[in-house]
Amino acid sequence: MPSSSLTDRIIEYFIKPPQIHSAFYFTVRYIAGIHFSPKDRQVRNYFFLPLDEGAIEPSFTRMNINNMPSVEERLKEGIEKLQLSEKKTTCLIPELSLKAFVLSFDSLPSFAEEKEKIIRFRIKRQMGFYPEDARLSFQEIESDKGKKILVSLAKDSVIKEYESCLNRQGLKVRALGSPVLGLYNVLNSQEEDFLLINVEKESLSLVAVVNSEISLYRQKPFALDTKAELSTAHQVENIMTEVDNTAHFLEDTEKTKIRTLYVRLGFLSADEEMYTQLEDQLPFSLKRIDVSQVERLNAKEREILSPLIGHIL
């Protein structure tokens, strides 16, 4: 069992990043990066560069990077655009490369090691297995209903793939994060109950907020084959199914009616068709993610970079 100080460092690594001024986001279709100024809280430099088809294939259980030379070539090109003066950075990995849970408990021990043991047991029971080389992190969420724990889990071998890409460019990864939680951090919503989804080529991730608390965290692939090309209509159908199921679940379990969906469409190409179809089919309000406090970027650039901005703001 690791010491308390070691457990704290693991938690900070995965969920509570230190003050870092650059961040990178690996996806199936592109790599994105930002260099952030803490003085004026603005993005100094940024990039998003397309990847070769199949270069990254996200998976929780298998190796992710199929074409390391291609990924590193793009990464090197992007780092040159950022003009970084420091080596510490943070990294967001694809949602399908990790598992995340919101767990509820009546009570928990005060010591981190004892909490971790109980959390590991719950995850193993929920997943049916527990990877031996998993990196686990957890954070207590303030709640009026007992104890809520936000848990992130990824295999060490998968994490090291992404870390090694950055390490070979002379950077040191000091924190790791989830894209949709970066979006949650950047939202400035006055609503107490809403859904937040992050849509990428191969998957969607969803966070449900009830009474201003994270209540649910889900990740769904669009197809069993993450390389499959699905039509916009098919993707919208999958999104609507997940949104409808979640909204009905919250009505039944939390007695809460969702009225707003915040969405980030993480596509480099035009996505107005998907947004319009979602808007037409949703029974409640649809709002796009917009990081309005970042002045120099246009709306699409802010949308693409928003998980990164939310992670280090």
Mean pLDDT: 87
E-strand count: 13
Strand sequence of the main sheet, in spatial order?
Answer: 3-2-1-4-8
Strand content: 25-35%
Radius of gyration: 19 Å
How many helical stretches?
8
Reading off the top of the CATH hierarchy, the class of the largest domain is best stated as: Alpha Beta
Q: Which class of secondary structure composition applies to the elements?
A: alpha/beta
Q: What CATH architecture of the largest domain do you see?
A: 2-Layer Sandwich
What are the secondary-structure elements, in order, as H or E? HEEEHEEHEEHEHEEEHEHEH
Helix content: 25-40%
Kindly identify the CATH topology of the largest domain.
Answer: Nucleotidyltransferase, domain 5
By CATH's scheme, which homologous superfamily of the largest domain applies? Answer: ATPase, nucleotide binding domain
CA-to-CA gap between the ends?
A: 33 Å
| Major sheet summary line | 5 strands, mixed
Shape: globular
Number of domains: 3
Low-confidence stretches: 1-13
Describe this structure in a few short sentences:
With 313 residues, this protein is α/β, with parallel strands linked by helices.
What does this structure look like?
The chain is of the alpha/beta class and 313 residues long. The protein folds into 3 domains: 11-95 and 155-179, Nucleotidyltransferase, domain 5; 99-151; 180-312, ATPase, nucleotide binding domain (Nucleotidyltransferase, domain 5). It is 35% helix and 29% strand. It contains 8 helices and 13 strands. The chain has helices at 4-14, 68-82, 112-127, 156-167, 179-186, 232-253, 272-281, 299-312, and strands at 22-26, 30-37, 42-50, 88-92, 99-105, 134-141, 147-155, 172-177, 194-199, 203-210, 213-221, 260-265, 285-288. The chain has a 5-stranded mixed sheet with strand order 3-2-1-4-8, with helices on both faces. A 5-stranded mixed sheet has the order 11-10-9-12-13, with helices on both faces. Helix 5 packs across helix 8 and helix 6 (232-253) runs parallel beside helix 7. The chain is globular and about 50 Å long. Residues 1-13 have low confidence and may be disordered.
